[in-house]
RNA sequence: UCCUUAGUAGCUCAGUUGGUUAGAGCGGCGGACUGUUAAUCCGUAGGUCGUAGGUUCAAGUCCUACCUGAGGAGCCA
């Protein structure tokens, strides 16, 4: 008898047919005549109830059917006489596949804190919450490729190990085969990288953008989707040392096209989740609602599915930095001195309190902020005609803040070189990058989407460590 | 990195102005009972109070340092 997935059974299983299922025991409720086993195989948030009569199996076997154990069950699918489910499996045969010592198995059929489960990252996918999160994560990965593929984009694998450290997106992790103690030194007494594996200093990538641009200047529309690494000592619920980033790059494309792409992309992904992950979203939603009950009414956020629909159905607000400053300057909290960092005028750096005000108070929907002062943005962003601002865009989401950062790139060789000089970017290290401006340069634009930040939004989870299988953060590299 | 806060049983927590043998619920185990649904009822085991120092007749409780978690800030995606 071939086994079928529980998702398949619950979707289209026919009452009266014989089936075999294999999975892990979530709970077992025993009694004198009959035992009820909630079985889950990870294919869906829902369990299949296996009904096992003691008359058939005896009492001994049930001592091994504990939470966490792997078992197989064969029997007839029948309509359930209980109220919690429509169908259940009336077991004729039960196979013990992998035992789980109930005295030691740490995941109990009760609520655990996410912090506790985080320490058990190897077992947490067996919980309802994390299985839901990681099924949604898969759906989002799939949807990302599908979105770009449908629109004629090509996926490019940009390098993970890179010698380019000129981008300045953050602190980098060094990649070396030098011994940890007494590495070879040069005449100046510094580490001699010419003797290292690559013959030069190498790091883990902080972004595939620059290499992505090279391919956009040949294939027109590309995207990367890979791991990126930041050695920043960031201890927040929104940062990881290792995270996944999606970076589309499009030739013959300006800032407006870029904003359109970003907005379409995010809405597509959210709609995809609503269409394909409703069971999991509903579970996460009710879990969140439960948690919110302890919060004061004014601090509660919108129900998860309602929130997703709202973002998918409404246009994002588009606003220049200069307009945002005006709004903030005249806002109530600024006038009443409620901002920790008061807004005085053009040039003030926007803090998260300001971004949150715009997104959560003023507009109550996602905001795309554009045309920031050149001083606070990267060298490759295209200088606006006013000579002051650059064609940058940040997409700000409620609760999360910046989910996307992007820009139209500076395609004019002279301007780019001038910006690099101003910002002390070594041109000789990026000669290959400048070549794209020397030979057939064209207006182009792109952005980076932090995949785990998208996951935070879609799942409603509060901590980024809970939407990636194994989180890497300062002082934490378990598993 | 900075600010705030926490660490007591497997989990979630209580533990008064320092004072005898550190408690509860859940989970585990044993039993009873029942087509159960976070089942219910009875019983039972389970603790170097984060670590290291210190103050004191006496420290879970006070002090210092460190470690770890959480919330917020900065950096950003």
Fold and architecture overview:
The model has no long low-confidence stretch (mean pLDDT 91). The protein has 2 domains: 6-107, Beta Barrel (OB fold (Dihydrolipoamide Acetyltransferase, E2P)); 128-170 and 206-316 and 365-466, Bira Bifunctional Protein, Domain 2 (BirA Bifunctional Protein, domain 2), CATH 3.30.930.10. The longest helix has 23 residues, at 128-150. The chain is built from 14 helices and 16 strands. It is of the alpha+beta class. The protein has an 8-stranded mixed β-sheet, sandwiched between helices. A 5-stranded mixed barrel has the order 1-2-3-5-4. It binds one RNA strand of 77 nucleotides through strand 2, helix 3, strand 11, strand 15 and strand 16.
The CATH architecture classification of the largest domain is 2-Layer Sandwich
- The CATH superfamily of the largest domain bears the name Bira Bifunctional Protein, Domain 2
Major pleated sheet = 8 strands, mixed
- Global structural class: alpha+beta
Written as H for each helix and E for each strand, in order along the chain, the element string is HEEEHEEHHEEEEHEEHHHEHHHEEEHHEH
CATH-assigned fold name of the largest domain: BirA Bifunctional Protein, domain 2
The domain count comes to: 2
